[in-house]
Amino acid sequence: MEFFQTPAKANRWCIDQRNTGKIIGMVPTMGALHEGHLELVKRAVKENDICVVSIFVNPLQFNEEKDFSAYPRNLEQDRIALKNCHCAMAFTGSLDSFFPRIDRSNITLLRPGAEANDLEGAHRPGHFAGVKTIVNKLFTTVRPHNAYFGEKDFQQTLVIRKLAKETSAPNIIVCPTHREKNGLAMSSRNERLTSNQRQQASVIYRALLAALSEWKKGVRGVKELEKAMVDVLATETDLKVEYATVRDPENWQEKNFNNSATTARALIAVTLGNVRLIDNMILS
Ligand code: PAF
């Protein structure tokens, strides 16, 4: 497996691969790889000639310095895991390598559209501008044909699909959330939970299932669906709920669904101790 630390070298290598007709699948990550990431990598390996993974803990998308510093980092383990999955190239950049000689405060950020305004966008101001700016740099470096993202970060996938549309590339493939046995969505942040907290955090999945069960019974009122989730979340008193809501996945609007609505998306964000967790589920 090739390993590059500068965008220029990674870019040269990718161009050479493209010039020999290779189809490149890319999995952008922030490292601390878990089974969920590796599923994306395995899929990219299977569906493309070569798979490239980026490992970059993006400072621009953290609105709190302490969250950025606490983000888990396991570069050596990640390299071994990627090699075992037949990843062809791993790339780790640094902010400085993407924006040489520019002070962070002078970096021009790519602004996301209305899809980024609420939920994660409202609770983490600037987060999606940071994501969009760096994912654009990663795409420009690797020039993938296909890029794979997890559905757990559902709102992020909307921002990235929009970026891909604006820049005419790459094809975005959103893959199902990988879960632990108790239903907790896999996330690098789970590493920061105690085993007791990991158990407590499974309530998020149960809350999403409660919304799904109401939806299947024919409930279409947002307030009722939200209450079904909040009631379940309230059984874990250590958990602080940031939001538990439902959106129309097509136009991202909060609204009461009419009786003929066939699909919606339930989304939850909580904090447990000092770890922030998000998850979502399609209601259909
Ligand atoms: O989902 C992530 O890990 C990050 O937001 C991403 C897409 C790699 C951008 O930094």
Identify the bound ligands: pantoate
Q: How many separate domains?
A: 2
> For the residues shown, what is the average pLDDT?
96
What radius of gyration results from the CA coordinates? 19 Å
Query: Count of DSSP E strands?
Result: 9
Order of helices and strands: EHEHEHHEHHHEHEHHHEEE
> Structural class, from helix and strand content?
alpha/beta
Number of helices: 11
Looking at the overall shape, the CATH architecture of the largest domain is 3-Layer(aba) Sandwich
CATH superfamily of the largest domain: HUPs
Instruction: Tell me the β content.
Output: 15-25%
* Most strands sheet: 6 strands, parallel
CATH level-1 class of the largest domain: Alpha Beta
Uncertain runs are none
**Strand order, biggest sheet?**
1-4-3-2-5-6
And the CATH topology of the largest domain?
Answer: Rossmann fold
Name the descriptors:
284 residues; 9 strands; Pantoate--beta-alanine Ligase, Chain: A,domain 2; globular; six-stranded parallel sheet; binds pantoate; Rossmann fold; 11 helices
